[in-house]
Fold Cell division ATP-binding protein FtsE.
Amino acid sequence: MGQEVLRDISFRIPERSFQFLTGPSGTGKTTLLRLLFMSLKPTRGLVTIFGKDRSRITPQELPLIRRKIGMVFQDFRLLDHLTTYENVALPLRVRGREESSYKNDVTDLLKWVGLGDRMHVLPPVLSGGEKQRAAIARALVEQPSILLADEPTGNVDPQLARRLLRLFIELNRMGTAVLIATHDLGLMDQVDARRMVLSGGRLEIYD
């Protein structure tokens, strides 16, 4: 059995809320996000997602519930053979939707994150900041109720970090709950938001 990363933690994410998850590297921030995204099952304890016990969610229900959760991964996870537009639209294509039903929405979303002129280029051509914004757009394309972001500003300069933060704040104002995992104290100081601090596998919350 592997080492237990998280122990005896308890918290909830209210609708339309904004919070940071922080703590030293290796304390379990990514693990906690994976539990919330349901890509990882807890070894014990209760994880409730939109009122449903994670242990009781069937494989058939899982994709439907996960559509309500947007996830921005630390390593972007863009497909190099698809354009920026195609990467962002991919979750909708996988669902079988016709392009005519989402083309305008995807285009508007890419303009919103500042990639209106980069829609038709491949990821290897994009800068790190542009890849991050493309990953954010992809996470938002299904209009999730909650957005989880794992170190979204870890690979960009301070100016771009502030721009990305403004995108998250605007998204939150539009009604999406936002949880950002970061160790960037300067970034967190720019927003009056709840901080959840992981240390030694335990969680402390500062409202």
